[in-house]
Design a protein that fits this description.
Structural class: mainly beta
Helix content: under 10%
Oligomer: single chain
Number of strands: 13
Shape: globular
Length: 234
């Protein structure tokens, strides 16, 4: 697959940065393999978690290929990323990588201030799966041994706190228009070089704060689709 490489990712620091549209990408070490097979083999399927379900997307078919870059669309409707109120986009790593930047294009259904936080976990045991979606309750009923309700308790969710984020930021999006954002200068604990250092079996969690039950009184929920996941590794 011949993907033209004419696009350098922007060097955002502590905020999301608009990226100019382009017909190519500069992906660092992945550019050495003109077929990008190494790129595709370095990641598992991207998971989009939303209130009530999830979808999985193959990167080559749905998130990075010549058609997505040049035409901002999918070759096959079956590969299209479905429009949902995604809370987390999960990128699993199959290889150890040194990542300098990550970019993605999104399209929303409303004009909205879009807030995102990034978290890295070394394995699946480092994070649970009980996340607080918009419909998730703050408290739940507790019962005695006979099954009778005896009160309520605050639900203990697995969402990582913001102080564990390796990057975060916000940007204003215009409905039904593709907008790009990019992250670099990662604040990963144990490292001071600004790179994201991943291990095989690790995962990046991109949390859309608009769709978090923790922020439902602060931010407007947003339904969106996404395309062109660009990960630059050194």
């Amino acid at each position: 697959m011949a993907i033209r490489k004419a696009f350098a990712l922007s060097a955002s620091t502590l905020s999301l940065a608009l990226l100019a549209s382009s017909c190519g990408a500069s992906l660092g070490k992945f550019d050495e393999d003109q077929s990008y097979e190494t790129y595709y083999a370095s990641f598992g399927d991207v998971k989009g978690l939303f209130d009530g379900g999830s979808h999985e997307y193959d990167i080559e078919d749905s998130l990075f290929n010549e058609t997505t870059l040049e035409e901002m669309k999918w070759d096959d409707d079956d590969d299209a990323v479905k429009e949902e109120e995604y809370l987390y986009l999960v990128l699993p790593f199959e290889d150890a990588l040194t990542i300098s930047s990550i970019a993605l294009n999104v399209k929303t259904t409303t004009d909205v201030s879009f807030e995102v936080s990034l978290f890295y976990f070394v394995d699946d045991l480092s994070i649970g799966t009980k996340f607080r979606y918009l419909s998730s309750p703050e408290k739940e009923t507790i019962y005695d041994t006979d099954g009778n309700p005896i009160g309520e308790e605050v639900v203990d969710y697995d969402d990582p706190p913001l102080d564990l984020a390796i990057q975060q930021g916000a940007m204003n999006l215009t409905r039904e228009e593709w907008s790009g954002f990019g992250f670099s200068d990662f604040n990963q604990r144990g490292f001071e070089d600004g790179y994201l250092h991943t291990l095989a079996g690790g995962s990046l969690y991109i949390r859309v704060e608009n769709n978090s039950g923790w922020r439902k009184d602060e931010l407007e929920p947003v339904s969106f689709t996404f395309i062109n996941l660009l990960v630059r590794a050194e």
